Amino acid sequence: MKRVVSVSLGSSGRDHKVQVELLGEQFEIERLGMDGDFDRALAKLQELDGQVDAIGLGGIDVYVYAGNKKYAFKDGLKLMETVKKTPVVDGSGLKNTLERETVNYLLRETNYLNKDTRVLMVSAVDRFGMAQAFTTAGCDVTFGDLIFAAGIPYPIKTLEELEEMAGKLLPEMTKLPFHMLYPTGKKQESRDEEKAKKYAQYYRDADVIAGDFHFIKRYLPDNLNGQIIITNTTTAADVEFLRQSGASRLVTTTPVFEGRSFGTNVMEGVLVALLGKPWEEVTPEDYMDLIERLEFKPRIIDMAS
Amino acid sequence: MATHEEITGSLQAFGEGYQKNKKLKIMNKDWDRVILIKAADVDSQHTLILKNGELTVTEGTPAGDPDLVVTADSETLADLFYGDITPTEPYMNGTLVIKGSEDDIVRLDFISLMIWGE
Protein backbone atom coordinates (compact mmCIF):
# COMPACT_ATOMS: atom_id res chain seq x y z
CA MET A 1 0.00 0.00 0.00
CA LYS A 2 1.23 3.47 -0.83
CA ARG A 3 1.05 6.06 1.93
CA VAL A 4 0.66 9.78 1.32
CA VAL A 5 0.59 12.18 4.26
CA SER A 6 -0.23 15.86 4.24
CA VAL A 7 1.35 17.84 7.07
CA SER A 8 -0.69 21.00 7.43
CA LEU A 9 -0.18 24.15 9.48
CA GLY A 10 -3.96 24.21 9.75
CA SER A 11 -6.26 23.01 12.48
CA SER A 12 -6.10 19.38 13.64
CA GLY A 13 -9.91 19.56 13.78
CA ARG A 14 -9.85 18.90 10.03
CA ASP A 15 -7.71 15.75 10.22
CA HIS A 16 -8.83 12.87 8.06
CA LYS A 17 -7.62 9.50 6.83
CA VAL A 18 -9.00 7.46 3.92
CA GLN A 19 -8.09 4.37 1.94
CA VAL A 20 -8.75 4.40 -1.79
CA GLU A 21 -7.79 2.40 -4.85
CA LEU A 22 -6.35 4.41 -7.71
CA LEU A 23 -5.28 2.76 -10.99
CA GLY A 24 -5.13 -0.60 -9.22
CA GLU A 25 -2.96 0.66 -6.34
CA GLN A 26 -4.14 0.86 -2.76
CA PHE A 27 -3.53 4.25 -1.11
CA GLU A 28 -3.75 5.42 2.44
CA ILE A 29 -4.15 9.19 2.39
CA GLU A 30 -3.90 11.12 5.62
CA ARG A 31 -4.01 14.76 6.62
CA LEU A 32 -2.37 15.86 9.88
CA GLY A 33 -2.98 19.40 11.15
CA MET A 34 -0.31 21.01 13.32
CA ASP A 35 -2.57 23.79 14.70
CA GLY A 36 -0.26 26.53 13.42
CA ASP A 37 2.74 25.15 15.33
CA PHE A 38 5.66 25.54 12.91
CA ASP A 39 8.17 23.60 15.04
CA ARG A 40 5.75 20.70 15.43
CA ALA A 41 5.35 20.64 11.65
CA LEU A 42 9.15 20.50 11.21
CA ALA A 43 9.39 17.60 13.69
CA LYS A 44 6.54 15.68 12.01
CA LEU A 45 8.14 16.13 8.59
CA GLN A 46 11.46 14.78 9.91
CA GLU A 47 9.63 11.81 11.44
CA LEU A 48 7.81 11.00 8.16
CA ASP A 49 10.81 11.51 5.87
CA GLY A 50 11.75 8.17 4.31
CA GLN A 51 8.73 6.44 5.90
CA VAL A 52 6.00 7.35 3.38
CA ASP A 53 5.67 7.52 -0.42
CA ALA A 54 4.94 11.23 -0.68
CA ILE A 55 4.43 14.19 1.63
CA GLY A 56 2.18 17.16 0.99
CA LEU A 57 2.62 20.52 2.71
CA GLY A 58 -0.74 21.99 3.63
CA GLY A 59 -1.91 25.25 5.14
CA ILE A 60 1.07 26.97 3.59
CA ASP A 61 2.25 27.84 0.11
CA VAL A 62 5.82 27.29 -0.87
CA TYR A 63 5.58 28.62 -4.40
CA VAL A 64 3.25 31.26 -5.80
CA TYR A 65 3.21 32.63 -9.33
CA ALA A 66 2.45 35.82 -11.20
CA GLY A 67 3.01 35.67 -14.94
CA ASN A 68 6.29 33.95 -15.64
CA LYS A 69 7.69 34.74 -12.20
CA LYS A 70 7.77 32.30 -9.33
CA TYR A 71 8.12 33.42 -5.72
CA ALA A 72 8.94 31.19 -2.75
CA PHE A 73 7.79 31.72 0.83
CA LYS A 74 10.72 31.44 3.21
CA ASP A 75 8.68 29.52 5.80
CA GLY A 76 7.42 27.12 3.13
CA LEU A 77 10.93 26.49 1.80
CA LYS A 78 12.14 25.79 5.33
CA LEU A 79 9.50 23.07 5.71
CA MET A 80 10.20 21.63 2.28
CA GLU A 81 13.96 21.54 2.78
CA THR A 82 13.54 19.59 6.02
CA VAL A 83 12.44 16.59 3.97
CA LYS A 84 15.48 14.90 2.44
CA LYS A 85 14.33 11.48 1.14
CA THR A 86 10.60 11.44 0.40
CA PRO A 87 9.11 13.48 -2.48
CA VAL A 88 7.50 16.57 -0.96
CA VAL A 89 5.01 18.84 -2.73
CA ASP A 90 2.95 21.92 -1.89
CA GLY A 91 0.23 21.47 -4.52
CA SER A 92 1.40 24.36 -6.69
CA GLY A 93 2.42 22.03 -9.53
CA LEU A 94 -0.99 20.44 -9.69
CA LYS A 95 -2.95 23.66 -9.13
CA ASN A 96 -1.66 25.09 -12.37
CA THR A 97 -2.99 22.07 -14.26
CA LEU A 98 -6.06 20.93 -12.35
CA GLU A 99 -7.59 24.29 -11.52
CA ARG A 100 -7.11 25.73 -14.99
CA GLU A 101 -8.82 22.58 -16.27
CA THR A 102 -11.67 23.05 -13.76
CA VAL A 103 -12.51 26.42 -15.30
CA ASN A 104 -12.33 24.91 -18.79
CA TYR A 105 -14.58 22.03 -17.68
CA LEU A 106 -17.19 24.46 -16.31
CA LEU A 107 -17.09 26.46 -19.55
CA ARG A 108 -17.52 23.29 -21.59
CA GLU A 109 -20.04 21.37 -19.53
CA THR A 110 -22.14 23.96 -17.66
CA ASN A 111 -23.64 27.42 -18.07
CA TYR A 112 -22.10 28.72 -14.81
CA LEU A 113 -19.43 30.78 -16.50
CA ASN A 114 -19.90 33.20 -19.34
CA LYS A 115 -18.26 36.28 -20.70
CA ASP A 116 -18.72 39.02 -18.08
CA THR A 117 -19.51 36.60 -15.22
CA ARG A 118 -18.32 38.46 -12.12
CA VAL A 119 -15.69 36.38 -10.38
CA LEU A 120 -14.06 37.18 -7.04
CA MET A 121 -10.79 35.30 -6.66
CA VAL A 122 -9.95 35.76 -3.00
CA SER A 123 -6.30 35.25 -3.90
CA ALA A 124 -4.79 34.66 -7.30
CA VAL A 125 -1.02 34.33 -6.88
CA ASP A 126 -1.58 30.91 -5.29
CA ARG A 127 -3.83 29.90 -8.23
CA PHE A 128 -2.42 31.75 -11.20
CA GLY A 129 -3.55 29.05 -13.65
CA MET A 130 -7.15 29.50 -12.54
CA ALA A 131 -6.79 33.30 -12.69
CA GLN A 132 -5.55 33.07 -16.28
CA ALA A 133 -8.36 30.69 -17.23
CA PHE A 134 -11.07 33.04 -15.88
CA THR A 135 -9.46 35.98 -17.68
CA THR A 136 -9.13 34.07 -20.95
CA ALA A 137 -12.84 33.17 -20.67
CA GLY A 138 -13.65 36.90 -20.59
CA CYS A 139 -14.96 36.89 -17.02
CA ASP A 140 -15.02 40.15 -15.06
CA VAL A 141 -12.48 39.10 -12.43
CA THR A 142 -11.59 40.82 -9.17
CA PHE A 143 -8.33 39.57 -7.69
CA GLY A 144 -8.56 39.96 -3.90
CA ASP A 145 -4.92 39.34 -3.00
CA LEU A 146 -4.40 42.77 -1.44
CA ILE A 147 -7.81 42.76 0.23
CA PHE A 148 -7.63 39.41 1.96
CA ALA A 149 -3.88 38.83 2.45
CA ALA A 150 -2.81 42.39 3.29
CA GLY A 151 -6.08 43.99 4.46
CA ILE A 152 -5.95 46.69 1.78
CA PRO A 153 -9.35 47.34 0.19
CA TYR A 154 -7.99 47.63 -3.34
CA PRO A 155 -9.44 45.25 -5.93
CA ILE A 156 -6.97 44.30 -8.64
CA LYS A 157 -8.76 44.01 -11.97
CA THR A 158 -6.19 42.78 -14.48
CA LEU A 159 -3.50 40.11 -14.61
CA GLU A 160 -1.04 42.81 -15.64
CA GLU A 161 -1.68 44.80 -12.46
CA LEU A 162 -1.51 41.61 -10.42
CA GLU A 163 1.93 40.86 -11.92
CA GLU A 164 3.09 44.44 -11.29
CA MET A 165 1.98 44.31 -7.64
CA ALA A 166 3.48 40.87 -7.17
CA GLY A 167 6.80 42.09 -8.57
CA LYS A 168 6.90 44.95 -6.07
CA LEU A 169 5.63 43.10 -3.03
CA LEU A 170 6.30 39.38 -3.14
CA PRO A 171 10.11 39.35 -3.19
CA GLU A 172 9.98 40.87 0.30
CA MET A 173 6.60 39.78 1.68
CA THR A 174 7.50 36.12 1.14
CA LYS A 175 10.17 36.63 3.83
CA LEU A 176 7.54 37.43 6.48
CA PRO A 177 6.20 34.69 8.75
CA PHE A 178 3.47 32.99 6.74
CA HIS A 179 0.87 33.45 9.49
CA MET A 180 1.05 37.22 8.97
CA LEU A 181 -0.42 36.82 5.49
CA TYR A 182 -2.62 33.74 5.74
CA PRO A 183 -4.93 32.26 8.40
CA THR A 184 -3.21 29.29 10.03
CA GLY A 185 -4.08 27.11 13.04
CA LYS A 186 -7.07 28.26 15.10
CA LYS A 187 -7.65 31.25 12.82
CA GLN A 188 -8.97 28.71 10.29
CA GLU A 189 -11.83 27.89 12.61
CA SER A 190 -13.13 31.40 13.17
CA ARG A 191 -14.40 34.26 11.09
CA ASP A 192 -12.80 37.70 11.15
CA GLU A 193 -16.04 39.52 11.98
CA GLU A 194 -14.77 43.03 11.34
CA LYS A 195 -13.29 42.24 7.94
CA ALA A 196 -16.23 40.00 6.98
CA LYS A 197 -18.45 43.08 7.34
CA LYS A 198 -15.95 45.43 5.74
CA TYR A 199 -15.41 43.26 2.66
CA ALA A 200 -18.94 41.80 2.34
CA GLN A 201 -19.69 43.80 -0.77
CA TYR A 202 -16.91 42.13 -2.74
CA TYR A 203 -18.56 38.76 -2.03
CA ARG A 204 -22.09 39.94 -2.73
CA ASP A 205 -21.14 41.69 -5.98
CA ALA A 206 -19.71 38.46 -7.39
CA ASP A 207 -21.50 35.64 -9.21
CA VAL A 208 -18.65 33.26 -8.52
CA ILE A 209 -16.27 33.18 -5.54
CA ALA A 210 -13.13 31.19 -6.20
CA GLY A 211 -9.86 30.34 -4.53
CA ASP A 212 -8.45 29.25 -1.22
CA PHE A 213 -11.18 27.96 1.06
CA HIS A 214 -9.67 29.29 4.28
CA PHE A 215 -9.65 32.82 2.89
CA ILE A 216 -13.21 32.38 1.57
CA LYS A 217 -14.45 31.07 4.92
CA ARG A 218 -12.64 33.57 7.16
CA TYR A 219 -14.19 36.60 5.47
CA LEU A 220 -17.51 35.13 4.33
CA PRO A 221 -20.38 37.53 5.07
CA ASP A 222 -23.65 36.44 6.66
CA ASN A 223 -25.83 36.32 3.61
CA LEU A 224 -24.67 35.38 0.15
CA ASN A 225 -27.15 35.70 -2.67
CA GLY A 226 -26.73 32.49 -4.65
CA GLN A 227 -23.03 32.63 -5.47
CA ILE A 228 -21.18 29.63 -6.89
CA ILE A 229 -18.12 28.70 -4.83
CA ILE A 230 -15.11 27.12 -6.60
CA THR A 231 -12.56 25.79 -4.13
CA ASN A 232 -11.30 22.64 -2.40
CA THR A 233 -10.34 21.25 1.03
CA THR A 234 -13.98 21.31 2.09
CA THR A 235 -15.37 18.99 4.75
CA ALA A 236 -19.01 17.90 5.06
CA ALA A 237 -19.43 20.61 7.73
CA ASP A 238 -18.04 23.21 5.33
CA VAL A 239 -20.57 22.19 2.68
CA GLU A 240 -23.37 22.70 5.20
CA PHE A 241 -21.86 26.03 6.28
CA LEU A 242 -21.83 27.25 2.66
CA ARG A 243 -25.41 26.06 2.17
CA GLN A 244 -26.52 28.01 5.24
CA SER A 245 -24.61 31.07 4.05
CA GLY A 246 -26.64 31.22 0.84
CA ALA A 247 -24.26 29.78 -1.76
CA SER A 248 -26.09 28.10 -4.66
CA ARG A 249 -23.44 25.60 -5.72
CA LEU A 250 -20.09 24.31 -4.59
CA VAL A 251 -17.55 23.18 -7.17
CA THR A 252 -14.54 21.36 -5.75
CA THR A 253 -11.47 21.07 -7.91
CA THR A 254 -10.02 17.99 -6.22
CA PRO A 255 -11.75 14.60 -5.98
CA VAL A 256 -13.90 13.81 -2.97
CA PHE A 257 -13.04 10.79 -0.83
CA GLU A 258 -15.49 9.90 1.94
CA GLY A 259 -17.20 13.30 1.79
CA ARG A 260 -13.95 15.21 1.92
CA SER A 261 -12.27 17.20 -0.84
CA PHE A 262 -8.57 17.08 -0.01
CA GLY A 263 -6.11 19.88 -0.72
CA THR A 264 -4.13 20.02 -3.93
CA ASN A 265 -0.97 19.24 -1.94
CA VAL A 266 -2.45 15.86 -0.99
CA MET A 267 -3.56 15.09 -4.52
CA GLU A 268 -0.22 16.17 -5.97
CA GLY A 269 1.41 13.82 -3.46
CA VAL A 270 -0.82 10.98 -4.69
CA LEU A 271 0.02 11.70 -8.34
CA VAL A 272 3.76 11.87 -7.60
CA ALA A 273 3.53 8.53 -5.75
CA LEU A 274 1.71 7.03 -8.75
CA LEU A 275 4.23 8.43 -11.23
CA GLY A 276 7.13 7.07 -9.20
CA LYS A 277 9.62 9.59 -10.53
CA PRO A 278 11.39 12.51 -8.86
CA TRP A 279 9.16 15.55 -8.46
CA GLU A 280 11.69 17.75 -10.29
CA GLU A 281 11.17 15.59 -13.41
CA VAL A 282 7.37 15.65 -13.33
CA THR A 283 5.82 17.77 -16.09
CA PRO A 284 2.33 19.33 -16.41
CA GLU A 285 1.72 16.77 -19.17
CA ASP A 286 2.40 13.94 -16.70
CA TYR A 287 -0.24 15.39 -14.40
CA MET A 288 -2.74 15.94 -17.24
CA ASP A 289 -2.26 12.36 -18.44
CA LEU A 290 -2.83 10.96 -14.96
CA ILE A 291 -5.83 13.22 -14.30
CA GLU A 292 -7.43 11.85 -17.48
CA ARG A 293 -6.62 8.23 -16.63
CA LEU A 294 -7.99 8.70 -13.11
CA GLU A 295 -11.04 10.45 -14.58
CA PHE A 296 -10.71 13.24 -12.01
CA LYS A 297 -13.48 15.73 -12.64
CA PRO A 298 -14.68 18.70 -10.62
CA ARG A 299 -17.46 17.76 -8.22
CA ILE A 300 -20.53 19.98 -8.29
CA ILE A 301 -22.88 20.14 -5.32
CA ASP A 302 -26.21 21.84 -5.88
CA MET A 303 -27.02 23.50 -2.56
CA ALA A 304 -30.76 23.64 -3.30
CA SER A 305 -31.11 19.86 -3.49
CA MET B 1 25.29 56.55 13.06
CA ALA B 2 22.85 58.89 11.29
CA THR B 3 21.89 62.31 12.62
CA HIS B 4 18.41 63.60 13.38
CA GLU B 5 18.64 65.74 10.25
CA GLU B 6 19.47 62.71 8.11
CA ILE B 7 16.47 60.83 9.48
CA THR B 8 14.32 63.90 8.80
CA GLY B 9 15.66 63.93 5.22
CA SER B 10 14.91 60.25 4.75
CA LEU B 11 11.34 60.69 6.03
CA GLN B 12 10.83 63.64 3.69
CA ALA B 13 12.02 61.47 0.78
CA PHE B 14 9.61 58.75 1.95
CA GLY B 15 6.79 61.32 2.12
CA GLU B 16 7.59 62.60 -1.38
CA GLY B 17 7.59 59.03 -2.71
CA TYR B 18 4.21 58.54 -1.10
CA GLN B 19 2.77 61.77 -2.55
CA LYS B 20 3.80 60.76 -6.06
CA ASN B 21 2.03 57.41 -5.82
CA LYS B 22 -1.66 58.06 -6.55
CA LYS B 23 -2.54 54.39 -6.24
CA LEU B 24 -1.10 54.26 -2.75
CA LYS B 25 -3.27 57.17 -1.64
CA ILE B 26 -6.37 55.33 -2.87
CA MET B 27 -5.26 52.13 -1.15
CA ASN B 28 -4.77 53.86 2.20
CA LYS B 29 -8.00 55.87 2.27
CA ASP B 30 -9.37 53.56 4.97
CA TRP B 31 -6.19 53.54 7.07
CA ASP B 32 -5.97 56.50 9.45
CA ARG B 33 -2.96 55.94 11.69
CA VAL B 34 -0.45 57.85 13.80
CA ILE B 35 3.03 56.33 13.66
CA LEU B 36 5.90 57.32 15.94
CA ILE B 37 9.40 56.80 14.54
CA LYS B 38 12.08 56.63 17.27
CA ALA B 39 15.83 56.31 16.93
CA ALA B 40 17.35 54.10 19.62
CA ASP B 41 20.85 55.61 19.58
CA VAL B 42 20.30 59.35 19.01
CA ASP B 43 17.71 61.80 20.25
CA SER B 44 15.40 61.75 17.25
CA GLN B 45 11.64 61.28 17.05
CA HIS B 46 9.26 61.87 14.18
CA THR B 47 5.56 61.38 13.64
CA LEU B 48 3.89 60.09 10.49
CA ILE B 49 0.19 60.82 10.24
CA LEU B 50 -1.96 59.02 7.68
CA LYS B 51 -5.42 60.47 7.26
CA ASN B 52 -7.83 59.96 4.36
CA GLY B 53 -4.99 58.57 2.29
CA GLU B 54 -2.75 61.62 2.84
CA LEU B 55 0.60 61.35 4.65
CA THR B 56 2.22 64.10 6.70
CA VAL B 57 5.61 63.96 8.41
CA THR B 58 6.43 66.07 11.47
CA GLU B 59 9.36 66.24 13.86
CA GLY B 60 8.75 65.23 17.48
CA THR B 61 6.17 63.05 19.19
CA PRO B 62 2.41 62.95 18.48
CA ALA B 63 -0.15 64.69 20.72
CA GLY B 64 -1.85 61.44 21.73
CA ASP B 65 -0.88 57.78 21.80
CA PRO B 66 0.45 56.51 18.48
CA ASP B 67 -1.08 53.42 16.81
CA LEU B 68 2.35 52.15 15.82
CA VAL B 69 5.81 52.73 17.27
CA VAL B 70 8.77 52.03 14.99
CA THR B 71 12.15 51.85 16.74
CA ALA B 72 15.58 51.14 15.27
CA ASP B 73 19.10 52.56 15.31
CA SER B 74 19.44 55.82 13.41
CA GLU B 75 21.38 54.27 10.51
CA THR B 76 18.69 51.63 9.93
CA LEU B 77 15.91 54.24 10.05
CA ALA B 78 17.65 56.52 7.55
CA ASP B 79 18.46 53.59 5.21
CA LEU B 80 14.92 52.32 5.50
CA PHE B 81 13.12 55.56 4.71
CA TYR B 82 15.54 56.43 1.91
CA GLY B 83 14.69 53.02 0.40
CA ASP B 84 18.26 51.69 0.62
CA ILE B 85 17.01 48.69 2.58
CA THR B 86 13.60 47.03 2.84
CA PRO B 87 11.90 46.74 6.24
CA THR B 88 11.39 42.97 6.12
CA GLU B 89 14.91 41.84 6.92
CA PRO B 90 15.64 44.25 9.82
CA TYR B 91 12.15 43.49 11.16
CA MET B 92 12.81 39.75 11.01
CA ASN B 93 16.24 39.98 12.63
CA GLY B 94 15.03 42.33 15.37
CA THR B 95 17.04 45.41 14.31
CA LEU B 96 13.74 47.11 13.53
CA VAL B 97 11.10 46.82 16.24
CA ILE B 98 7.51 47.69 15.43
CA LYS B 99 4.92 47.80 18.18
CA GLY B 100 1.36 47.60 16.95
CA SER B 101 -1.13 45.14 15.52
CA GLU B 102 0.13 42.52 13.08
CA ASP B 103 -2.24 43.84 10.39
CA ASP B 104 -0.79 47.34 10.79
CA ILE B 105 2.77 46.02 10.57
CA VAL B 106 1.98 44.26 7.28
CA ARG B 107 0.37 47.47 6.03
CA LEU B 108 3.42 49.59 6.87
CA ASP B 109 5.67 47.05 5.16
CA PHE B 110 3.37 47.21 2.16
CA ILE B 111 3.54 51.02 1.92
CA SER B 112 7.30 50.95 2.04
CA LEU B 113 7.49 48.31 -0.69
CA MET B 114 5.01 50.21 -2.87
CA ILE B 115 7.23 53.29 -2.66
CA TRP B 116 10.62 51.67 -2.97
CA GLY B 117 9.92 48.14 -4.27
CA GLU B 118 11.33 46.91 -7.59
Give an overview of the whole structure:
The complex is a heterodimer of chains A (305) and B (118). Chain A is 38% helix and 21% strand. Chain A is globular, with a radius of gyration of 18 Å. Chain A is α/β, with parallel strands linked by helices and 305 residues long. Chain A is built from 12 helices and 15 strands. Chain A folds into 2 domains: 2-91 and 256-296, Rossmann fold (3-Layer(aba) Sandwich), CATH 3.40.50; 95-252, Rossmann fold. The mean pLDDT of chain A is 93. Chain A has a 6-stranded mixed β-sheet with strand order 9-8-10-11-12-15, sandwiched between helices. By secondary structure, chain B is an alpha+beta fold. Chain B has a single domain (4-116), classed as Nonspecific Lipid-transfer Protein, Chain A (2-Layer Sandwich). Chain B has helices at residues 4-20, 22-27, 74-82, 88-93, 102-116; strands at 33-39, 45-51, 54-59, 68-72, 97-99. A 5-stranded mixed β-sheet of chain B has the order 3-2-1-4-5. In chain B, strand 1 (33-39) and strand 2 form a beta hairpin. In chain B, helix 1 packs parallel to helix 3. At the A-B interface, helix 6 of A face helix 2, helix 4 and helix 5 of B.
